[in-house]
């Protein structure tokens, strides 16, 4: 600790009746040696209530002891490791954002170039069997329907459609399913219209009494409303390139009216709705 320095009091001035000290004439030419004040020789007392701890310099630990060196090294390297981890996380987030931006830009460019459109569907005709017996409500029906479906890809000039396997088509009346069948797998080029037949079969169909009476009245009037629904997994192929979409589900619903419930019936389309999930692009 630094010692405190107190100002030295001025020496007493000699009285007039005292003779000058010896050698006073030489005081102007010689330097009088400095005499230390007695206060410099005794240690300073600290203020009351103050504790002073003095540690010798040879006992100050500036290097960790050997038994603590490994832990000290580990704790000293932790901030650097955290900085590296933080930097890696920032780089990963930046790369992810860049990939998203590139994918969005690519999808937008592909959409502007190819202009993909959803296909349209309609029911050309229906062949119905097994729906004639509407006498009693206890009768179990096993209807069979063959539907001629028309798939139109005329709106796409550069986009072909691949209809994958696993699709299905169902026919229902007043919410009651009558028959179901598989959708065929095929490829449809751009600006193409394809008509195919779907065989649908039903077993154990039992209609309520109210449904039977209404169905009989509508058959007599020559306008029986039926709902044809399809769920088809498809992929879009862009031009002659290998670029195509993931397999997505296309759901279509067509409301039709038939004039008879046996034989080849004439189907009048009352509108079809097509729903397609968002497309995700890939190579």
Automatic annotation (TrEMBL):
Residues 1-51 are annotated as: Disordered. It is a single-pass membrane protein. GO terms for cellular component: membrane. Keywords: Membrane, Transmembrane, Transmembrane helix. It is found in: Membrane. Its main location: membrane. Pfam families: LEA_2. InterPro entries: LEA_2, NDR1-like. Coiled coil: none annotated. It comes from the Eukaryota. The chain crosses the membrane at residues 88-114. PANTHER family: LATE EMBRYOGENESIS ABUNDANT (LEA) HYDROXYPROLINE-RICH GLYCOPROTEIN FAMILY, LATE EMBRYOGENESIS ABUNDANT PROTEIN LEA-2 SUBGROUP DOMAIN-CONTAINING PROTEIN. This is Late embryogenesis abundant protein LEA-2 subgroup domain-containing protein. It comes from Urochloa decumbens.
């Amino acid at each position: 600790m630094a010692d405190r320095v107190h100002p030295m009091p001025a020496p007493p001035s000699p009285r007039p009746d005292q003779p000058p000290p010896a050698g006073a004439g030489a005081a102007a030419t010689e330097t009088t040696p400095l005499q230390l004040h007695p206060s410099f020789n005794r240690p300073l007392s600290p203020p009351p209530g103050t504790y002073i701890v003095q540690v010798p310099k040879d006992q100050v630990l500036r290097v960790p002891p050997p038994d603590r060196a490994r832990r000290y090294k580990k704790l000293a390297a932790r901030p650097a490791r955290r900085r590296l981890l933080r930097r890696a996380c920032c780089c990963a987030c930046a790369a992810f954002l860049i990939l998203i931006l590139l994918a969005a830009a690519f999808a937008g460019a592909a959409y502007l170039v190819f202009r993909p459109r959803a296909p349209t569907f309609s029911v050309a005709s229906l062949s119905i069997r097994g729906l004639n017996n509407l006498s009693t409500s206890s009768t179990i029906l096993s209807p069979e329907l063959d539907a001629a479906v028309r798939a139109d890809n005329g709106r796409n000039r550069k986009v072909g459609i691949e209809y994958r396997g696993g699709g299905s088509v169902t026919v229902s009346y007043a919410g009651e399913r009558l028959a179901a069948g598989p959708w065929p797998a095929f490829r449809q080029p751009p600006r193409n219209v394809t008509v195919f037949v779907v065989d649908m079969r039903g077993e154990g169909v039992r209609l309520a009494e109210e449904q039977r009476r209404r169905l009989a009245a509508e058959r007599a009037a020559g306008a029986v409303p039926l709902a044809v629904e399809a769920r088809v997994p498809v992929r879009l192929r862009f031009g002659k390139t290998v670029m195509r979409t993931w397999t997505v589900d296309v759901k279509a619903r067509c409301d039709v009216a038939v004039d008879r419930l046996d034989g080849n019936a004439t189907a009048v389309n009352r509108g079809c709705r097509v729903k397609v999930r968002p497309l995700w692009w890939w190579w």
